[in-house]
Amino acid sequence: MRCYIGRTGDGFELDPERILALDFGEHRFAVPLDSDNSRGPESAHPIRVGEDGRTSPRGGFRIW
Description:
0% helix; 3 strands; mainly beta; 3-stranded antiparallel beta sheet
C-alpha cells in the first residue's frame, strides 16, 4: 500500500457497519468495519488532505 501514499483515489465506498473501500484505478483496498472481522478497536483512520497535499485543518479525521 505504500506505493499509493500521496496518490489521489478514483473513488470510495463507505458502509459504516460493513466496509470502507478505496479505489485506485484497477486496485481496490477494502477494510472490513463489522465486528466479526475487526481485530481491534480501530479499523481505519483516514485523514483528509487539502489541494496543496497537506492535512486539511478543516477536514480533520475519523476513526472506525
